[in-house]
Fold these 3 entries.
Entry 1:
Amino acid sequence: MYKLFIRPILFLFDPEKVHYFTFSVIKFIHKIPGVPALIRSIYKVEDERLEKEVFGLKFKNPVGLAAGFDKDARLFNEFSNFGFGFIEIGTLTPKPQPGNPKKRLFRLKSDSAIVNRMGFNNGGVEDAVERLKKNKGVLIGGNIGKNKVTPNEDAVNDYKICFETLYEYVDYFVVNVSSPNTPNLRALQDKEPLKHLLHTLQELNTQKTIQKPILLKIAPDLTDEQLLDIIEIVKDTKIAGVIATNTTISRDGLISENKKETGGLSGKPLTNRATEVIRFLANRSDKAFPIIGVGGIHSAEDAIEKLEAGADLVQVYTGFIYEGPKLVKEINKALLR
């Protein structure tokens, strides 16, 4: 029904406007008595065999909603009804920021892909916390970044602010230094700046009564040498794991008319590269740390491929847009089979 009727209509309109329209619809229908229970009955798959314990947290199933979809933590309770085992909010920054000028979100229909250059548009971390206080038991990841106006030499302070502000309200943290849409952000992936940033956050973490898992989200465009550095950094800083991968700046093999739009590419063109990165990290580290696999998951087979490559959990984003909410159910059903 989604791909036959709903998606063709939604795809007639500007993708960013559709995103906010869809949020409004989901928010509205969840206020109708009985609808949340109906949605859960259609999409939610509950089975003890799907449960996984990863970096000390118990996930009801291994399929999550990737960061960027519910940036400002507006619909995490509602999205959990579609069967997700966890929701990652953000990327959040210390201060609100509008992001990059519009138009900044593009569908590449012929490639089943999306290009975005949103630029960490969000209402700021304190604004999101007010909504996170209303969490009804959803396992939440907090994806954190720096404000655009903050120079790289001061970036650590932005991450510290986000960490401290979110600490009580999320189950794990994700350090985002791999988005291509904030100027110079990816320079923080270099070995020494990254070690400094992660060590600083780990020091804050160890001062807490209960430590929260800290993960690093990496780009798919890293070389093998850089990936070996990531393995060394994870071991050195003792962070909990890695999310592989963020969007790519590569445009190899695209056929859509708007393929030259600048920004991060997500969707089917990323499927193989994300899996390669997962496999490389898992094999070369001898599975020394957990990996959340994300990038180009448009089917249950795509998800299983990433899990078999070495991922412990998976996340969807663009596949959720192209395939619809049944994708989460299909992955969980396939895992049970």
Entry 2:
Amino acid sequence: MKIRYNAPVTLTFALISATVLLLDQLFGLHLISTFFIVPGKGGFDPTFAPGYLRLVTHIIGHVGWQHLLGNFSIILLIGPILEEKYGSSSLLVMILLTALITGLLNVLFFPTALLGASGVAFMMILLVSFTNIRSGDVPLTFILILLFYLAREVMNSLQTNQISEFAHIVGGFCGSLFGFLKPRR
């Protein structure tokens, strides 16, 4: 028996994110604050070229190990299933589109910064409910996940915290769209 790198997009995403956090914490390089945070509304400088890259790279940076483990316990559980059903390149495109959409909307509408992969995790949560869809059907699992997920995020948004429930909801919306629009391979 041998260990197989079975989900290259998911595993590489997790390894890069963990490495960035480890390097940032071990050496105080300020990598996360420099390259992986999307500023809130009014904080985006269109003349600062790296700012455009942050619209996507924010999914790599995390505040700490608890934040990273919370996101990647979901991503590592669901990502390989999605890579098998949709293909690695399709999943990578879905991850990057979700990152870009959440980053852009955060810059345009929300005053707080955005950091982490929770939008991607929630994209995957909704998308995975489509893995066994049949033509013309809407999976009941999708409806239930959507209802529970929206209820939880709306309740959480009423609390004062440093979590972007908005990114979760947008990620879930992206996963829903991808599920309806992207046929399995």
Entry 3:
Amino acid sequence: MNDFDVGSRLKELRLRYGMSQRQLADAADVPHGQISMIETNKSSPSVASLRKILGGMNIGMSEFFEPESPQSSDVFFTPSQLRDLTSRIYSGREGTVGKITLKQVGDARAHNLQILHETYEPGADTGDDMLEHVASEGGIVVSGEIELTVGDRTAILKAGDAFLFKSQEPHRFRNVGDRPATVISACSPPYL
């Protein structure tokens, strides 16, 4: 799972939807060359850019990253059973800073609910491009400190503090502390 090929997956979906690179770029309102650069893995999109491009095909991040996810009746999960989404989203992507680890509980699409165990190393940042998507999300900081910006509001949340907001508001997570921060979050419908 750590070698997810964003470029090949984007090309596969674009062709399935019968779109040229130019048509997808126009539908997503991105520069024409950006699609080609991503498909040939010459550029890694930020989460915000990828979300915008996928919107041009009316599909979400969950469908992009879990195309053949088998439905499971599992109820209980050990740490080793959590699905590591880290390399799919933040590994070397433009705009992000520092190490961010994201691990998902079960099949988010089957339940229309994404539960994540998130770890932000000191200095980790989801990027200058604020995240925006159709959902509601909330979470609790388990350890460390995380700076959360939602719209024009910013707060530094410490262990025990929580958040809940509509994800259409631009938002950003940053670890401004000197030790790792751990957050347990939920998002519905699934974002990643």
